[in-house]
Structures are given as C-alpha cells and as structure tokens.
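User: I'm curious whether this sequence folds into something compact or stays loose and floppy. Could you predict its structure so I can see for myself?
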Amino acid sequence: MSALAFDALNVFLLACLVVTGLAIARLRGLFAVAMLSGIYSLLSASVFVLLDAVDVAFTEAAVGAGMTTVLFLATFGLTRSREHAAPHQKRVPALLVAVACGGVLLVALSDMPPFGAADTPVQTDPITERYVETTHEEVGIPNMVTTLLASYRGFDTLGEVVVVFTAGIAVLMLLGRCSRERAEDES
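Assistant: Here's the prediction. I'll summarize afterward.
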C-alpha cells in the first residue's frame, strides 16, 4: 500500500470515528447508542490493524465491540429505552468535571516525551536492542509487539484476558440477579 493510500485510509477512518462519536453524543435512543458504540470500537480496531498493533485490535474488538455491546444490550432489560435530557442545573457541573479532567490530561501530556523521540527510556534500555535484533529469528512473527505480547509475555497476556473475562462474567451475573429480583418484586 502506498503512503498516500495509507494516509487517506487513516484520515477516512478518523473521520468515521469523529462522525460516529458525534452521533453517539447526539442520540437519545439507547439501542442506537449501543450499536454505534460497537461500530466505533470496530473502527478503532481497524485503526490499530493499520498501525500494526494487531494484539490491541483484537482486544478492542473483543472488549469494545463484543463484550461492551452485550453488556449494553443486557442492561436494556433493566432500564428505559430512551435517555431523558438532564436539566440544565445538572449539565453545568458535568461540563465542569469534563473540562477539569481534560485540563489534567493536558498537564500530564506536557510531561510526555515527543512522539517518536529516540531518547525515551523505552528506546535507551539495553533489552530493547536485544528484542529488535532477535525476536524475528526466535519466534518468526514479523510484528515485534505481537511477538512480545504473544510469546515473551504470553502468560501475562493470558492473565489480562482472564481478568477481563472474569469481570464480564461478574457483571452479567449481577445483571441477571438484578433482573430476577426485579421480576420477583413485580409479581
């Protein structure tokens, strides 16, 4: 793929992400929001694939598009199908909290090294050179990040997957318990 086509595809996916995000913010129908959230996650996973972060793309697709959408749909049995607009008195504090969080993130961003800087701790650590030189020969996977996560840190990655899976099962169990209690109260 040429650099121009690669850039055009990235811009197209970014535009789709922005449009989907704005649509999510504007909608009041919760089913449509859940479906668009799944689409947003799949678009994000596509961006990660283009950036050769296939492992992150799988996680985003599984957790973002799969698990989160299922949890949204399971929650619909316990809530209304449409969101009611919040009164203006409640919108101002929410806006202030969002602006404060954004300010904290911008302050934290100023402490990060420039993107692609060669003098960051990750680049200057001695183990980095070993991984760069030997991972392809040792494992045979062309993507170094995937090699590190799937081979060298396989048990750690498995542990993360187990934690996410356990959290999802716990939430589904809580939702099932709440719906049973609700059904018992109605009868």
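Summary: The radius of gyration is 21 Å. The chain has a mean pLDDT of 82.
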